[in-house]
Design a protein that fits this description.
The structure holds 2 protein chains of 2 kinds. The longest helix of chain A has 12 residues. Chain A has 4 helices and 7 strands, in the order H-H-E-E-H-E-E-E-E-H-E. Helices cover about 20% and strands about 30% of the residues of chain A. By secondary structure, chain A is an alpha/beta fold. In chain A, strands 1-2-5-4-3 form a 5-stranded mixed sheet. In chain A, strands 6-7 form a two-stranded parallel sheet. In chain A, strand 4 and strand 5 form a beta hairpin. Chain A has a domain of about 100 residues: NADH:ubiquinone oxidoreductase Nqo5 subunit (Beta Polymerase, domain 2). Chain B is globular, with a radius of gyration of 22 Å. In chain B, strand 6 and strand 7 form a beta hairpin. Chain B is mainly alpha-helical. Chain B has a 3-stranded antiparallel sheet. In chain B, strands 6-7-8 form a 3-stranded antiparallel sheet. Chain B has a two-stranded antiparallel ribbon with strand order 4-5. Chain B has 17 helices and 8 strands. Chain B has one domain: Cytochrome-c3 Hydrogenase, chain B. In chain B, helix 4 packs antiparallel against helix 5, helix 4 runs antiparallel to helix 11 and helix 6 packs antiparallel against helix 11. The chains are: A alpha/beta, B mainly alpha. Chains A and B meet through strand 3, strand 4 and helix 4 of A and helix 1, strand 6, strand 7, strand 8 and helix 14 of B.
């Protein structure tokens, strides 16, 4: 089985319903899109993430009503350094969608989506704890895995695997 | 790096009538190291806050320092009650990154062992859940059958719990002689054993008193709070990834997905007990037509060669040496692979940068998601119901904390 090359051209992808919906709402909110290995990814602007999520959840033709996961990726030392990755699932339509937000290393912060899905609470706390990405508007943004007085964020790439000794 | 110090989570009482109670992390009915902070008014819970992280072992970080194939044994340790489901999810994600095709025999055996794992996990859940509520003997009955399943795991992999039997590209070994007979014997006997559990519990008035209309979760709340698996299906949302987004050949098997609209502890109990029967049914179907053929994909650069080939063929020896010493490069990209674990949607998000080590491995743990629904279930209820509620969402703390 050969891997099909990834499609990253917005022109080719703009017909796909989730992207079409987001482009119709605000063409400036979409930074990039990718279709690779049967998975569809949309990169949205940092300021647009909460509204984009609400839009995708409430649109009757899309119904991405379930937040499966939020996580982060650290691309240190390149910039923009952080990616926050959202995996959405449409329970009625059995479809998945990945949203991404790229964040600069010097100010990794974005809007919380806990007002859209209360389930984002723990996931955002985990990303904050392990990557140091701050979510504004989160009701209880505290460390969740590491002790409260821990130094640093362990899943960052400049954090040694064995920890500081 | 300056770090703001905040004290450990506390709940301040909202009025003179409430007090704060600490439950866990070593409480026997929290199923591991879960700490719950309860704000109570007499016996009634006003607010609840789970405090987790006691078992955080940094598996995601460790994966980044290992070759892809070295990640498989780590995944066992995430959820120690369904190690094979974790193995499966991880190897499926890497196989999709590589674009590997898995031979039908390996897929077939993966389904069979995966369903046996579900039975194993549900038996531990049923036994300990019943024990929490006070039905002691069910625990002993469940562990009797669990022993049979663990013996089958030991036959195929040499290990009872940390199996690591699935490999990227197939299976570790051909299953031994007598394994299918052992499974056949188990499958034949198991439905009557489920009847035994049901005889003890389903229409038992004490059991019903403790579980019916307890820890109710509405369908809207279940979706909004991210509940998944049997917890979600017991609230009336009909989704099962095995049926709706099939992987590793589940579309070939016929089974029902039990759903209930009651949303209480009893509904979750019923859904899981039905799932025991359905899983047994799937295992029975897999026994009927196990295809012959190889158990590993035809990809010499990824899959370790057979022992015999390695000793006789120069090329196989070279590949073996290269895979073991320097791993195999995986094309750059990212994959989110979700499977239906006994606890719900388990997902592995694997990012590759083209090197032989994963750039990022993230585990979307179903227990982590289910735990968020716990305060909603318990607030306004009695302390004794918390124990029933924790048992009913079937959390594994190894998976919550990773």
């Amino acid at each position: 089985m050969l891997l099909a090359p990834a499609i990253t051209d917005l022109e080719q992808l703009k017909e796909r319903p989730p992207l079409a919906r987001l482009l119709a709402w605000d063409a400036g909110a979409v930074e990039a899109a990718k279709f690779d290995r049967d998975e569809f990814t949309i990169v949205v602007k940092r300021t647009a993430i909460r509204q984009a999520c609400a839009l995708l959840r409430d649109d009757p033709a899309l119904q991405f009503n379930f937040l499966a996961d939020i996580t982060g990726v650290d691309w240190y030392p390149s910039e923009p350094r952080f990616e926050v990755v959202y995996h959405l699932l449409s329970i009625p339509r059995h479809q998945r969608l990945r949203l991404k937000v790229r964040l600069a290393g010097d100010d990794p912060s974005l809007e919380s989506i806990t007002s859209v899905w209360p389930s984002a609470n723990f996931f955002e706390r985990e990303v904050y704890d392990l990557f140091g990405v701050r979510f504004s508007g989160h009701p209880n943004l505290r460390r969740i895995m590491m002790p409260e007085d821990w130094d640093g964020h362990p899943l960052r790439k400049d954090y040694p695997v064995e920890g500081y000794r | 790096m300056p770090q703001m110090f905040t004290p450990t989570p506390t709940l301040e009482g909202t009025g003179p009538r409430t007090m704060t109670l600490n439950m866990g992390p070593q409480h026997p009915s929290t199923h591991g190291v879960l700490r719950l902070l309860l704000e109570i008014d007499g016996e009634t819970i006003v607010r609840m806050m789970p405090d987790i992280g006691f078992l955080h072992t940094g598996i995601e970080k460790t994966c980044e320092a290992k070759f892809y194939q070295q990640g498989v044994p780590l995944t066992d340790r995430i959820d120690y009650l369904c190690p094979l489901t974790n193995n499966l999810c991880y190897v499926l994600a890497v196989e999709r990154l590589l674009g590997l095709e898995i031979p039908p025999r390996a897929q077939w055996l993966r389904v069979m062992l995966n369903e046996l794992t579900r039975i194993n996990s549900h038996l531990v859940w049923l036994g300990s859940h019943a024990l929490d509520i006070g039905a002691m003997s069910v625990f002993l009955y469940c562990f009797r059958e669990r022993e049979d399943v663990l013996r089958i795991f030991e036959m195929v992999s040499g290990q009872r719990m940390m199996t690591s039997y699935f490999r990227i590209g197939g299976l570790a070994l051909e299953p031994p002689l007598g394994m299918f007979d052992a499974v056949r014997k188990f499958v034949k006997r198991f439905p009557s054993r489920v009847d035994e559990y049901e005889n003890l519990l389903t229409s038992n008035p004490i059991w019903m008193e403790r579980t019916k209309k307890v820890a109710y979760l509405s369908p809207e709340d279940a979706v909004a709070l991210g509940a998944t698996g049997p917890t979600l299906r017991a609230s009336g949302i009909d989704i099962d990834l095995r049926r709706d987004m099939p992987y590793t050949g589940y579309e070939k098997f016929k089974f029902k997905v039990p759903v209930s609209n009651d949303g209480d502890v009893f509904a979750r109990y019923m859904v899981r007990v039905q799932e025991l029967r359905q899983s047994n049914e799937i295992v029975r179907q897999t026994l009927e037509g196990v295809p012959e053929g190889p158990i590993k994909a035809d990809a010499p650069k990824v899959v370790l060669p057979d022992r015999e080939k390695m000793k006789t063929q120069m090329e196989a020896l070279i590949y073996h040496f290269k895979i073991v010493t320097e791993g195999f490069p995986v094309p750059a990209g990212e994959v989110y692979q979700a499977v239906e674990s006994p606890r719900g949607e388990m997902g592995y998000y694997v990012v590759s940068d083209g090197s032989p080590k994963p750039y990022r491995v993230h585990v979307r743990a179903p227990s982590f998601a289910n735990l968020q629904a716990l305060p909603t279930m318990c607030e306004g209820r009695l302390i004794a119901d918390v124990v029933a509620a924790i048992g009913s969402i079937d959390i594994v703390l190894g998976e919550v904390d990773r």
